[in-house]
Design goal:
Elements lengths: L3 E3 L5 E3 L3 E2 L8 H11 L3 E3 L7 H13 L9 E6 L6 H15 L4 E6 L36 H13 L3 E7 L3 H10 L6 E5 L7 H9 L3 E5 L23 H10 L3 H11 L3 E2 L6 H8 L8 H8 L10 H9 L8
Parallel strand pairs: 3-4, 4-5, 5-6, 6-7, 7-8, 8-9, 9-10
Antiparallel strand pairs: 1-2
Helix pairs in contact: 1-2, 2-3, 3-4, 7-8
């Protein structure tokens, strides 16, 4: 059984999910169906992943087969950067709902605190990061849309019954503190990069105090980023001797140790895998517990190493310097 955290509203939020970033379109339907059959009940999707239509087919297959009911499933998606203006928020959400074949989302998140120039659906979907990929020097083009405008439109999605809960991704404490001053509906979830090389202890403590549930993306650290040139092969926390020793001691894999550490410190985790065996391993986290000493040993691995940083990949891939964490 997968445990849950309780959100500020009282809703149960599954502590382990399947991250769908970088899942290939052709394999997504079967992967989602297999994940739900394995017991996964939390799917983390996004417009920008470009596979929501395929994810939707997997969800539909599982629901029609009686694997689970819709009310037993938690589905998250995210508002992309080009849709921050108030008139674009609902159409963006409705497009995700149509692709996912759902009537509502359990959670909708602002993907980045970055507003980009609007790209119509008929021009390109998902729109990606650059405004004109065919330009001589394609780059990101920013839009002057305040987060307050976007958040008000997100709140209206809750009012309309299209979204049950709303939150944000990649926000720091300053942005969260500002958002909380004007939010009519407070953000219930913050999704950020968190793993033993980036523990973000102060951000996690702040969210606890504000009753904002944290979801850790990339909870295993570097592996997803090595093929993108955003991490080096020797930066894998899975290779740490202390992690492997804990795995041996508990009879678990190094990945299970990292995921258990994430859950035990109060964060939901959304590892990505296309391997059916690992799908089951990734939710088999509740028959053991790390000691206080083991938790501190993992905490001590912190390097403040962020792999997913627009200040780096924006300039490297999109010819645009776009810091948000500094």
């Amino acid at each position: 059984m997968v445990s849950s955290f309780t959100l500020k509203s009282g809703a149960s939020f599954p502590s382990v999910g399947l991250g769908l970033w970088k899942v290939e379109n052709e394999t997504a339907p079967q992967l989602v169906d297999e994940a739900l059959r394995a017991g996964v009940r939390h799917l983390d999707s996004a417009c920008d992943y470009g596979n929501e239509a395929e994810v939707g087919r997997g969800i539909r297959s599982a629901l029609e087969s009686g694997v689970c009911r819709r009310d037993q499933l938690w589905v998250t998606s995210k508002l992309w950067n080009t849709y921050h203006a108030k008139e674009h928020v609902r159409p963006a959400l409705e497009r995700s709902l149509r692709d996912l074949q759902l009537d509502y989302l359990d959670l909708y998140l602002i993907h980045f605190p970055i507003a980009l120039k609007y790209v119509p659906f008929e021009t390109r979907y998902p729109p990606g990061w650059v405004y004109n990929p065919g330009a001589a020097h394609p780059c990101m083009e920013f839009a002057n849309v305040p987060i307050s405008e976007t958040w008000q439109a997100m709140e209206e999605l809750v009012d309309a019954g299209l979204v049950r809960h709303i939150g944000v991704c990649n926000f720091n404490t300053a942005l969260l503190r500002d958002l909380l001053t004007y939010a009519r509906i407070s953000p219930e979830v913050l999704q950020v990069e968190m793993h033993p090389y980036l523990t973000q202890q102060r951000l996690l403590r702040f969210c606890r105090e504000m009753q904002i549930q944290v979801t850790a993306f990339s909870p295993l650290g570097a592996p997803s980023y090595v093929p993108l040139g955003m991490a080096h092969a020797d930066e894998s926390v899975l290779d740490e001797a202390v992690i492997n020793e804990m795995a041996r001691r508990h009879g678990k894999t190094p990945a299970q140790i990292l995921l258990r550490w994430g859950i035990q410190r109060g964060t939901a985790v959304i590892p990505k895998t296309a391997n059916p065996k690992r799908l089951r391993e990734n939710i088999a986290l509740f028959d053991f517990e790390l000691s206080d000493e083991e938790m501190e040993t993992v905490n001590a691995l912190d390097r403040h190493r962020r792999f997913n940083d627009p200040a780096f990949f924006g300039e490297m891939a999109f010819n645009t310097f776009c810091p948000i964490f500094d």
